[in-house]
Amino acid sequence: MDVPIAKNRDVKPEEYAELRRALTLISGKWKLEILWLLYHRPHRFGELLRTINGVTQHMLTRQLRELEADGLVTRTVFAEVPPRVEYGMTDATIALEPAIWALMEWSREFGTPARIAAEAKAARD
Amino acid sequence: MDVPIAKNRDVKPEEYAELRRALTLISGKWKLEILWLLYHRPHRFGELLRTINGVTQHMLTRQLRELEADGLVTRTVFAEVPPRVEYGMTDATIALEPAIWALMEWSREFGTPARIAAEAKAARD
DNA sequence: CTGAATCCTTTTAGATACTG
DNA sequence: CAGTATCTAAAAGGATTCAG
């Protein structure tokens, strides 16, 4: 909090695109839940489906495919009957933790609509 | 990096929604550019329009309105002719800096598609 | 058990013209 | 100068059905 970003460096135009891309990678509706569960341990598809409240089979598959394509989860297929698929972390996933943590801290402080509205009002006065 | 989030605490279901909301707040296509410029100093509408490459008047207005509604920018109208409107930071904006910084760090390390793909491949092997 | 295919709704972004 | 009003396009999310 004592380290204003803007005072430290400028941002090149291309970096905005990269930063936006980073946001896109984790902005899927279920991706944070998925990643969080995987931070604890590898999970099977059915485990994720049962654990994540409200997600459909279709959406879970799609979010996992996107995460996999972006290198944020690993997908391991075991040649068994019945089939077993396990999802796990990558180095990129692990490196993402501090950013998620920082966002969660901020969300707890300022993420509440009422609180944010109050802050804005106070700033206007 | 030495502090795995998952090892420290669990996340309540409601917190996922809050975290997703935080992401939504900053996920607009032009919001990061806007916030970054405002971190340096207050800007007028026309200044933002000229400085941010590729944004249209319409989109800039909409993104600013959303940021304002979310308490991430202040909007000050000066009763002058011609009209002058200035946008600035709020406490919530300032508190957001560390999270943006963390995301940008991660993006520089893992945000490149090629790099991410390589990481994923290495993890699979 | 894991997931692909199809169709549909909602959200977000953008282009264009007009205004106090 | 700083917007608003329409309209259109693209992306994201979701329900349902079928399959190795």
Automatic annotation (TrEMBL), chains A, B:
Domain of life: Bacteria
GO molecular function, one term: DNA binding
Keywords of this entry: DNA-binding, Transcription, Transcription regulation
Keyword Cell membrane in annotation: no
A GO BP entry: regulation of DNA-templated transcription
Organism field: Sphingobium fontiphilum
Transmembrane segments: none
InterPro entries assigned: ArsR-like_HTH, HTH_HxlR, WH-like_DNA-bd_sf, WH_DNA-bd_sf
Domain HTH hxlR-type: 17-115
Protein name per the record: DNA-binding HxlR family transcriptional regulator
